[in-house]
Design brief:
Elements: E1 5-11, E2 44-49, H1 56-60, E3 63-65, E4 85-90, E5 93-97, E6 103-107, E7 113-117, E8 148-155, E9 161-165, H2 171-178, E10 196-203, E11 206-212, E12 239-244, H3 254-268, H4 270-273, E13 277-281, H5 291-307, E14 311-313, H6 322-336, E15 340-341
Parallel strand pairs: 1-3, 2-4, 9-11, 9-12, 12-13, 13-14
Antiparallel strand pairs: 1-8, 2-7, 5-6, 5-8, 10-11, 11-15
């Protein structure tokens, strides 16, 4: 199960109470106060872990309480501080306060460690209150209650390239052709129910991460279809592959499809609409010799030339045109300065 958005409750550890105690020892009259301080409560930390790809663990456990500090004791023995708690989250997790909506932190690098909530201080023992005029104080502080709040965790996938388009355009097939990822592939709409990441090796020392995103439909930015909840995953992509389906059996208008998806991107985020794109017409093996499809592709080609978006005609099933597309993607990422070294 892919979980990319969830609320969790976090509570810092309570502080231990200070102790009221007096030294009681033979031949030591008026030993004085010796009550120790209470220990501090533990804190909760969020740590980004590249091995995680979903927030599924938080689906089964929503409440997290850090360990409380122990109470102080006599003979000036201070209480032990509570242990900190570490919660691991996937790279790309955005953390915000659920009630106020304030964004707190964006975890984007492996090992990044951020404080979710801090534990409270322990109370002071009566030894802290001794003065020249009050040699036998009989007061001590109680430990403070640990703070608490609800956090909203939202996963936004970190990928160099995102594949977008209408359902059944061949996005999953293309990702499986380019990488070792194995997304579910079938001939019915909305086969892809969750994003899939794959690593593509462009050459010996270059690789990039590609994301297969669920299909979009008109109105996706307003919540229609399945793709609306995954539009946020396109925000972190550096390059978009806009896949078109020229299959003559569908009777789709390629240029209208292109404009419709771009309109959804613009409705969701103007910045996303300005993201660099490569327009790709898939299923080239099915459209050869079809005059109507050839005219539709020519319209798209002229539109792309006018807007500065390259058009590539490929067949993800047979592999035709895929190597040229891979080189174009790698070159575009290099131009943008975002290609990543292969590990």
């Amino acid at each position: 199960m892919f979980v990319d958005e969830i609320d969790v409750f976090v509570k810092g550890g309570d502080g231990g109470a200070g102790c009221v105690s007096f030294r009681r020892e033979k031949f030591v009259p008026y030993g004085g106060p010796d009550g120790g301080d209470g220990g501090n409560g533990g804190s909760i930390w969020l740590v980004a872990d590249a091995a995680l790809t979903t927030l599924l663990d938080f689906h089964y456990k929503r409440h997290y309480h850090a360990e409380r500090g122990t109470h102080g004791e006599g003979s000036n023995r201070h209480g032990a501080s509570g242990s900190d708690m570490v919660l691991k989250v996937p790279l790309g997790t955005v953390v915000s306060d659920r009630d106020t909506g304030e964004r707190l932190v964006d975890l984007t690098t492996h090992g990044q460690r951020e404080l979710a909530i801090r534990g409270s201080h322990g109370g002071r023992g009566n030894a802290r209150f001794a003065t020249s005029t009050n040699r036998a104080p009989r007061r001590a502080d109680l430990g403070r209650r640990g703070p608490e709040r609800w956090l909203h965790l939202e996963l936004r996938l970190l990928a160099d390239v995102g594949v977008i388009g209408f359902p059944n355009a061949g996005k999953s097939t293309l990702v499986s052709r380019l990488s070792a990822a194995k997304p579910k592939i079938a001939d019915y709409p909305f086969t892809t129910l969750e994003p899939t990441l794959g690593i593509v090796r462009a050459n010996e020392d270059r690789s990039f991460v590609i994301a297969d995103l669920p299909g979009l439909i008109p109105g996706a930015a307003q919540g229609k279809g399945l793709g609306h909840q995954f539009l946020r995953h396109t925000e972190r992509t550096r390059l978009l592959l806009h896949l078109l389906d020229p299959d003559p059996n569908t009777g789709r208008d390629l240029l209208a499809d292109l404009d419709a998806i771009n309109a959804e991107l613009a409705a969701y985020s103007p910045e996303l609409a300005a993201r660099p794109q490569l327009v790709v017409a898939n299923k080239g093996d099915l459209v050869e010799g079809d005059a109507d499809v050839a005219r539709a592709l020519d319209r798209v080609r002229r539109h792309c030339a006018a807007t500065g978006q390259p058009l590539h005609v490929i067949s993800a099933v047979t592999g035709r045109g895929v190597p040229d597309l891979l080189r174009a993607v790698a070159a575009r990422l290099d131009d943008l300065g975002w290609a990543r070294a292969a590990s």
